């Protein structure tokens, strides 16, 4: 993969003010920070079922997409954008929350299953493949090693970060932007090594 393959960055989340800054919307949060850093506002594009921003110019131009569908229909927005911009699956990067990673951890993978994430399920079903890059941001899980974990999952992912987590997430979002810059300027392997090797000393588990 060349150093500038990602033409579409897709942050996953749910639309509406009631979901703003919730754990499930950390993908939106990453793109909002990136767009703000580049002074590029998001605009609703009804044809793409989402909000779009553009950063860079010429060959470095990238589109940022926040689907305005709900999480479990994220693939519909992605498919519309890929068709509109004539993109292939190796030119997209999905930024998504991961309940199996603790807050303060980041993982980037070039393929993989949905891991039970409804947004990734929708995208895999739409693309017909698991072979696309995804950058996963840890949001922790509610009850480690508990039989009741499934019952608590929905309220956890739709809940807000606590005060300690908010500070950690701000650091993580900065690190995500650094990693994306490395991917563009130095290649995917170097960017992946940086993101996957990042160690936040203030990583917290949710008790």
Question: Could you characterize what this model shows?
Answer:
By secondary structure, this protein is an alpha/beta fold. Helices cover 37% and strands 17% of the residues. It has a single domain, classed as 3-Layer(aba) Sandwich (Rossmann fold), CATH 3.40.50. The chain has helices at residues 26-37, 74-85, 118-127, 149-157, 163-186, 188-197, and strands at residues 8-11, 43-45, 50-55, 62-67, 92-98, 106-109, 133-138. A 7-stranded mixed beta sheet has the order 2-3-4-1-5-7-6. The longest helix has 24 residues, at 163-186. It is globular and about 50 Å long. Residues 203-207 have low confidence and may be disordered.
Assembly state (oligomeric):
single chain
What is the ordering of alpha helices and beta strands?
A: EHEEEHEEHEHHH
Helical run tally: 6
Tell me the distance between the termini.
40 Å
* CATH architectural name: 3-Layer(aba) Sandwich
In terms of DSSP E residues, the strand content is 15-25%
Can you summarize this structure?
This protein is of the alpha/beta class. The protein has six helices and seven strands, in the order βαβββαββαβααα. It has helices spanning 26-37, 74-85, 118-127, 149-157, 163-186, 188-197; strands spanning 8-11, 43-45, 50-55, 62-67, 92-98, 106-109, 133-138.
């Amino acid at each position: 993969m060349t150093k500038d393959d990602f033409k579409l960055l897709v942050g996953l989340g749910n639309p509406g003010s009631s979901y703003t800054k919730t754990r499930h919307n950390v993908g939106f949060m990453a793109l909002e920070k990136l767009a703000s850093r580049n002074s590029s506002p998001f605009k609703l594009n009804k044809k793409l079922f989402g909000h779009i921003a553009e950063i860079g110019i010429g060959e470095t131009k990238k589109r940022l997409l926040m689907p305005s569908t709900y999480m479990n229909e994220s693939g519909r927005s992605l498919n519309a954008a890929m068709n509109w911009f004539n993109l292939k699956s190796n030119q997209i990067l999905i930024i998504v929350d991961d309940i199996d990673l603790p807050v303060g951890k980041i993982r980037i993978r070039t393929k993989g299953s949905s891991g039970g994430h409804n947004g990734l399920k929708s995208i895999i079903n739409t693309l017909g493949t698991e072979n696309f890059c995804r950058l996963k941001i840890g949001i922790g899980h509610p009850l480690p090693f508990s039989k009741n974990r499934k019952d608590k999952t929905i309220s956890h992912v739709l809940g807000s970060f606590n005060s300690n987590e908010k500070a950690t997430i701000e650091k993580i979002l900065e690190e995500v932007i650094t990693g994306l810059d490395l991917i563009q300027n130095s290649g995917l392997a170097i960017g992946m090594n940086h993101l996957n090797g990042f160690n936040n000393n203030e990583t917290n588990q949710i008790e």
